[in-house]
Specification:
mainly alpha, 17 helices, disordered N terminus
């Protein structure tokens, strides 16, 4: 029998490259946070130091996956439902987030004495705005930017679709957003960071300049759009430029090689002087280009990145959101009894145990909270044609 117009579309072949990239992203973040909050040393060498770029990879993945959902609906014969889109997004992101948020606010031991921002900052997803480093659950800043993105992108896409030449307007809006990010980072660096001038003040001046870098640039929504926009650009290409998309996705191996080269260049640049003016302004678009190329390689069905299933990556990708939420505090709290028993944060046993506990915590959160909510979403808010 012919499929019902209200039945879900047939599932496309699974592209294992997306799982691999998501697993890579959460691994990088976990290693970086281990260095930053647990060992406070270069435990994993340059990989731990540059691991913060895992967040940027998450942004690129979100930009593509969410953009593809929206643009596929707009390009198809059906219609795009804002209420269904928001309902599916809320069931995907809020339950895990609110459970972990409750742990911080209702269980003082879990917060570990770190200052907590007012609850409304988290609930409204405005915590990243003028965020000062050092507060509890500070790594939720990236979730705030993603939620803001989920709210704005579909509304903007519908508004542009209502205009003539909406596709040209869409590309113009993307270019304008990239330009705004460049200008904003440059102006904010001049106003609040200006590392060279502050280094002359002494050690305290340099520390203040670095804190200002995070508050006004690294955590700021308008300054961190580049990777999200790279994913959105790929989604636009796929849904509105199919011939060009087919040509691009025939060269996944080349895209992988170019992406790796671009990311290596960006990593060396950031590692050399992360707080430099030129790196601040142009480093993030370079990361966006590199991760965009990796995404392109992961979307070529014939390329190795898409076709090969790396053992463990599918499960790690499935748990990645839950792991991201809980790993930092689990590692910080569990490191203390291990240190008291004579196993410091840099010992192999401590590393294995803390990484294992982070993985277990994410798996439990996924199983007890996220998976049931995904089942509810599939039942009451299925993805229709």
């Amino acid at each position: 029998m012919p499929p019902s117009p209200f039945s879900p579309p047939p599932a496309p072949p699974r592209l294992h490259g997306l799982d691999t990239l998501r697993a890579l992203a959460v691994t990088l973040v976990v290693l970086h946070h281990y260095v930053l909050f647990v060992s406070e040393r270069a435990t994993f060498g340059w990989l731990g130091e540059i691991g913060w770029v895992g967040v940027d990879l998450f942004f690129a993945l979100s930009g593509y996956l969410i953009g593809n959902q929206i643009f596929a609906a707009l390009a198809g014969p059906g219609h795009f439902s804002l209420t269904r889109f928001y309902g599916r997004r809320l069931l995907r992101t809020l339950p895990n987030f609110y459970v972990v948020l409750a742990l911080y606010y209702l269980w003082p031991w879990f917060a570990d004495g770190a200052p907590l921002l007012p609850l409304w900052r988290f609930i409204s997803f405005t915590q990243n705005i003028l965020l000062v480093p050092g507060s509890a659950f500070s790594h939720a800043w990236s979730l705030c930017i993603e939620e803001q993105f989920y709210v704005v992108l579909p509304v903007l896409a519908l508004a542009l679709a209502a205009q003539r030449r909406s596709l040209a307007l869409g590309w113009a809006a993307l270019a304008a957003a990239v330009l705004v990010g460049l200008v904003a980072r440059g102006c904010l660096w001049r106003l609040h960071v200006n590392v060279d001038a502050n280094v002359g003040v002494g050690g305290a001046g340099a520390v203040q300049a670095q804190a200002a870098y995070f508050t006004y640039i690294y955590y700021a929504s308008v300054c961190r759009l580049d990777e999200l926009l790279a994913g959105v650009a790929l989604a636009l290409l796929k849904n509105f430029h199919p011939l060009l998309w087919q040509r691009l996705t025939r060269h996944g191996e080349l895209a992988l090689a170019l992406g790796a080269a671009v990311l290596a260049l960006a990593a060396c640049w950031f590692l050399a002087d992360r707080y430099d003016f030129a790196v601040t302004v142009f480093g993030y678009p370079l990361l966006a280009l590199g991760f965009g190329l990796l995404l392109l390689a992961a979307l070529d069905p014939s390329a190795r990145l898409a076709a090969r299933r790396v053992p463990g990556c599918q499960r790690l990708a499935l748990w990645s959101y839950a792991i991201y939420l809980v790993h930092r505090q689990i590692s910080v709290l569990a490191a203390r009894p291990l240190a008291a028993a004579g196993f410091g944060a840099e010992s192999p046993l401590a590393i294995v145990m803390l990484m294992g506990l982070s993985l277990l915590g994410g798996a439990l959160l996924y199983t007890l909270v996220e998976a049931p909510c995904m089942a509810l979403r599939a039942r009451y808010l299925p993805l229709k044609r």
